[in-house]
Every structure is written in structure tokens, then in C-alpha cells.
Design a protein that fits this description.
About 40% of the residues lie in helices and about 20% in strands. It is α/β, with parallel strands linked by helices. Helix 7 runs parallel beside helix 8. The longest helix is centred in the last third of the chain and has 20 residues.
Amino acid sequence: MNSPLISIVVAVFNGAQTIQKCIDSIQSQDFKNFELIVIDGESTDSTCEILHRNKNIIKYMISESDRGIADAWNKGISQAKGEWIYFLGADDYLWDSGVLSAAAKELQKNSSNALVVYGKVAVVNEEYQEIVRAGKPWHQISDGFKGLMLLPHQGIFHHYTLFKTYGHFDEQFRIVADYEFLLRYLKSNKAIFLSNLTVSGMLHGGISSQADGSLRLLREVRQAQKKCGLNMPHPNWILAMMRVRFRLLLTSLLGEQLTYKILDQIRALVRQPRFWTKL
């Protein structure tokens, strides 16, 4: 009875291929003090049919057009009753059945220390094979966070007072609304890292998986930083921009597959695991 209520917000649009796996991972949790809120962007595939088949586990559901992911998340926040709010992608899933119970113990201990608590996220390919495990201790990334989104969003638990104090997601950001929102708080506060907890599996893809999409993402990151008063580009951001432009150049000259091999050879030189050739 002392365990905190966790609100899980899932925003989905035409997610028929993955939404059942997402819901199953929530339903299988051995921790039951949660509420599931699903915001559907008026899907045109069979997503809504799947959601209705799972209505026994869904506390609140709506299907209507929206203005993007930030708008959908904000709708979810307005319905959330939990002490902690967690956003899970419709393409993603909780890593195992003990995620919420392990998280709840830590959230209960840390509720007075921080408003942002996060664990690791396993990035997986379309066969659900792990590519890389994302998430590092806050003391290692606190400065770098001012230049890039270094927190795995699908691994973050947000205390409800965060939204009361700092507002909701800014809908002008189409790609990095999560980063801009967290930057408002974390540019001058700390987050707590749960080193032993892998929160979710995240399907690799989306706009940042393509080099031109990464360029748009990084440009929006700079807009977010300027909005939060960080007017000078951080070295991490500059380096990331250089990497993306190098990737674009290689792809135009050599093609995608050979570029991926070269990029992983470079990663090996700096003792990082393969990434691009595991997609």
C-alpha cells in the first residue's frame, strides 16, 4: 500500500505491429500499482481494435487527431494520477516482469531527493536482438547533457511535481520535446541513476536513424538549448554535428552498407561495441 502509483503513458499512431507487445509487457508486471493511459492519434490501421481488446488493463484511452507526440504526451499528463509518470513508446516494451517492482522500491526511496530517476534502456533491432545498452551515471553525463540528450527517454520516471513546477512539453518541438522539457530542470539540478535496472527495450529507428533526420534533430536540439538559456553551442553538440555530416558524406560516396562497416570499424578503434552493422 506504500508503493507509489506509477502512471504509464503510451502515445501511439498506427502501431498495430507493435502495440500488443508493448501492452503485454505492462500486463505481465508483478507490480500492479500502476495505471495505463493510452493516447491514440486517430490511427487508421487496426490499432484501435487492439486497444479495445485490451481495455481491461487500460485506465484511460482516447483516439483523436493531435499536433504531434508532445501534444499526445501532454494529454496523457492531464489524465495521470500517479506520483511518478513514465512514457513508453508504442514500439517499445518493459524489459522484464520485474521492472516496475524494482523501480517502485527505488522511487519510494528517492522521491524526496530528485524529480528525475532513470535506468538503462536496451536498444534492439527489428528481430528484438540487443544492439547496445544505453544509460550512464548522472555524474558522467551531467555536463554533456547540456549539449545532447544523453538520458534514455524510455528509461526515465518523472515525479508529478516536475510538471507542476516546470510546465508540460513544448509542442513547437517536433522531435526533441522530451529533451527540451528535461533541460529546463536538469540544467541546474540532478537526476538519479538506477545502475542495476534495465527499464525497457527500445526499437531502433525513427528520425535519428537516418543521417538527414539526425541533422534535423540536432538543429532542434540547439533551438531547445537556446530556449533554456544555453546560447553557446556545447562541444558535445558540435562533435555530434561533425559526425552526422561525416556520415552524410560517406553515405553519398560509398552507400549506406559500406558506411555502416566503416563507422563500426571506427567504433572498434575507440573500443566501443559494434552498432551500425547490428541494425
